[in-house]
């Protein structure tokens, strides 16, 4: 019966192509929307993820970077560096400000980093210098190209003209842009001490246990809040969801529901279209059990092939989108599409079961009369 089901499928090539195509497009819709949502979340915390540190120290009461203001006293960095087990600690200043480019204003997360800092600055430089002087700034390449800017051009930040010293890559997204400035100049613009820091990035010694070091740092700086890198990124992503990513998530859920409905309708319609073929099988003596085997075999083969094509196509489109629209990050993790399998199995079973009663009641004489 399995061989019969396969021959029945490939006999009507246009029909099976439509079924596979319908399922594939549904899978693409589900994975791309889910990938855009995952990508927007990940890009929003790209600065946190890209730093080679395990611990982040911030002002007491602060648990995220977005929609927050954190300033640590000038002496805090020295206290952290004196803690045994700390390999390196870097203090950065942070502000969410508008970068004026002609008549346009692009909001960006600007980080003030000292020129001699081992980390905290740009991680992927494509042009110019990664160490901006007092009157300079480092922008993302995509942002600069969008407004026709390059190294040596000028933008206005917080009322001051800054020259573009370098261009980075991977720091410009749909809702977030990361830029870098000189820490001393940033301190002047913010009206704080150059030794102050919004966040202190802590890198442990290679043999140091992170949890043990975290407890020691908390004792050394009891008036500040300390988070691990993962906890800090997770807290920031939760804040982003509350800020408006819920809209994207709602679109993701709607796309998921539409995708499942398309799969169900595709299988349901394909099954009904073969009613005459099932009638022929019934006429030559196929039992109810054998008819069910054919129905479910054909349904699962169509969904399986459509699933494989859809996953492959989703990865290809994610790459194309990344090339055409660099600020849009589409992340399709294997767990995302593997996790769809149980739901697809359930939808396929239900879609194939709905017309089964009609198939089992079909009169073979009607088939031959047709």
Helix content: 40-55%
**Largest β sheet strand count, sense and barrel closure:** 6 strands, mixed, barrel
Cα Rg: 29 Å
Supply the number of structural domains.
Answer: 2
**Series of H and E elements:** HHHEHEEEEHEEEHEHEHHHHHHH
* Tally of DSSP β-strands: 10
Mean pLDDT: 83
Give the DSSP E fraction (strand runs of 2 or more residues).
15-25%
Low-pLDDT segments: none
Number of DSSP helices?
A: 14
Structural class: alpha+beta
- State the end-to-end CA separation: 24 Å
Silhouette: elongated
What's the arrangement of strands in the largest beta sheet?
2-3-8-5-7-6
Protein traits:
alpha+beta, 370 residues, single chain, 14 helices
Please provide a written account of the structure.
It is a single chain. This protein is of the alpha+beta class. It folds into 2 domains: 2-44 and 244-369, no CATH class; 61-222, no CATH class. It is 54% helix and 19% strand. It is built from 14 helices and 10 strands. The radius of gyration is 29 Å and the shape is elongated. The two termini are 24 Å apart.
């Amino acid at each position: 019966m399995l061989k019969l089901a396969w021959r029945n499928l490939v006999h009507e090539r246009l029909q099976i192509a439509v079924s596979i195509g319908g399922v594939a497009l549904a899978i693409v819709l589900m994975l791309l929307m889910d990938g855009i949502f995952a990508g927007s979340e990940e890009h929003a915390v790209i600065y946190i993820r890209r730093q080679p540190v395990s611990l982040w120290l911030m002002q007491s009461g602060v648990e995220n970077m977005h929609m927050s203001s954190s300033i640590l006293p000038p002496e805090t960095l020295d206290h952290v560096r004196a803690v045994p087990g700390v390999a390196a600690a870097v203090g950065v200043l942070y502000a969410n400000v508008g970068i004026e480019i002609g008549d346009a204003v692009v909001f960006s997360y600007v980080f003030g980093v000292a020129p001699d800092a081992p980390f905290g600055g740009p991680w992927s430089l494509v042009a110019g210098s990664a160490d901006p002087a007092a009157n300079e700034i480092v922008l993302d390449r995509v942002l600069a190209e969008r407004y026709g800017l390059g190294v040596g051009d000028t933008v206005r930040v917080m009322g001051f003209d800054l020259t573009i010293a370098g261009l980075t890559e991977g720091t410009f997204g749909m809702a977030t842009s990361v830029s870098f400035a000189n820490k001393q100049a940033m301190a002047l613009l913010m009206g704080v001490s150059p030794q102050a820091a919004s966040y202190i990035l802590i890198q442990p010694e290679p043999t140091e246990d992170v949890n043990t070091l975290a407890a020691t740092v908390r004792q050394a700086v009891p008036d500040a809040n300390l988070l691990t890198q993962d906890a800090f990124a997770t807290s920031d992503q939760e804040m982003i969801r509350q800020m408006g990513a819920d809209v994207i998530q709602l679109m993701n859920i709607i796309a998921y529901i539409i995708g499942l409905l398309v799969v169900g309708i595709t299988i349901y319609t394909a099954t009904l279209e073969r009613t005459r073929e099932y009638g022929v099988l019934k006429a030559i003596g196929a039992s109810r059990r054998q008819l069910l085997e054919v129905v479910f075999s054909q349904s699962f083969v169509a969904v399986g092939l459509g699933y494989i094509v859809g996953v492959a196509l989703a990865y290809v489109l994610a790459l194309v989108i990344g090339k055409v629209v660099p600020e849009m990050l589409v992340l399709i993790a294997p767990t995302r599409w593997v996790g769809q399998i149980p739901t697809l199995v359930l939808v396929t079973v239900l879609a194939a079961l709905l017309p089964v009663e009609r198939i089992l009641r079909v009169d073979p004489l009607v088939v031959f009369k047709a």
